[in-house]
Amino acid sequence: MALPKRIVIHELGPREGMQIEKNPIDTSEKVRLVDMLSECRFHEIEVTSFVSPKWVPQMADAEQVVAGIQRAEGTRYTAIYLNTQGLQRAVMTGKLDVEGSLSITASEAFSKKNTNRSIAETLAETEKRIEGFQRFGIRPHEVSVMAAFGCNYEGDIAPDHVVGLVAQLMDLAEQNQYDISMIQLADTMGWANPEAIRRLVGKIQDRWPTRRINLHLHDTRGMGLMNAFAALEMGVDDFDSAVAGLGGCPYAGFKDAPGNIATEDLVHMCHELGIETGVDLERLLDIAREAERIVGHPLPGKVMRGGHLD
Question: Which residues of the chain have pLDDT under 50?
């Protein structure tokens, strides 16, 4: 399949990055990072996470961060939440583009560590989440599977298992008359390789050929851009990434491993391949270096050091 002519990038750095930092980051710096990223013309910037401060203290200032940002025209500003209470907090800010997603984790062990629920309990909770969507007039357009390629606690995840979970979520969506246009596959702990990408993406495309696929890739073991390229070859045109490679999951069992693929590295690769992103790479490189200063330690992005090619 020919490479897509253009891709959509969802910038997750302000949320993914801040949630895993060991040292507290000042609220004003979080706001400044979002505002700088707004200059790059992203389709979406994920601002924060409405989760319990008890479990993720770095997100205790979620409302303050949202209140401080300056929205830019043409960019959607979103957040994540794990339950109805988090959804309500996001809605109550009055400033976010609150989106609905039906999500599940493919690994039983990681599901319990990350959300304190089994897969079955997550499916039951999804019914309650749907009630919350209905209360706030939100119509989900996406289903999502985390740890879709593998898990540090369980090893490889069978593609057919992931397809089965997607099917269950699609059935729930159909029962509630939701029009699902996107299927997200998340390599939450960096287990994917190009062949695994082709295998699972191919199965999803065969089963649901009219739905777009979003890939949430981590560069834990240095395979992130290889996996993105394999997906591009299959026509995938929607990706998550984080400026400078910020991020990672607090419950994935890592200490210092890289998180999401670095946005500037993804943008640079796409531009070299003649794929449009709509992102201002020159400005993004400056922001990647500033993100490193904000968190106070080196980040894994490469192009911010090597520079892009003229």
Answer: none
